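[READ THE FOLD]
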Amino acid sequence: MTSNTLIPWYKQFWPWFVISIPIISIIAGIGMIVIANYKPDAMVVDDYYKSGLSINRTMARDKRAVALGQRAKITIAAADKRIVLTLAGREQPQNLVLHLTHPTATQHDITINLRQENNKEKYSGTLASLPKGKRYLLLEPKDQLWRLIGNATFPSKEAIVLSPDL
């Protein structure tokens, strides 16, 4: 004796399998949109034209640093989180700005204001916390007429040397 009773569709495997594929795709797509919008990439530049024009100003700053003979050596005292900078060159401004830029995460960027000490070539400043990992360094006066650049991996026991980028 055979039974020809029909099993309802919602009790069978294959309809649920076929329905699950688009549902999983929709959920995954929504998840990707949420992840992409949660923390947008900070390295993307909206206005490429203005960025291109600023390259000429940057090169002029580097040429001015070369003309002035600017060089800097940075040492960091880890115990008291103090930065000591020795600046060699014809221009010795009262205040300098040192930017420690993280390669990928802008929230880890640090800007330090350095003040001239009694010795005209020495500058010092303090850090809130010691950086860890690779950083790009940019040293410039407040008026941004010249710049010195370099990179370092922290913690660093050696002196960091900054020079113009030419």
Notes: Residues 11-38 form one domain. Residues 13-38 form the longest helix (26 residues). Strands lie at 71-77, 82-88, 95-101, 110-116, 122-126, 133-141, 148-154, 160-162.
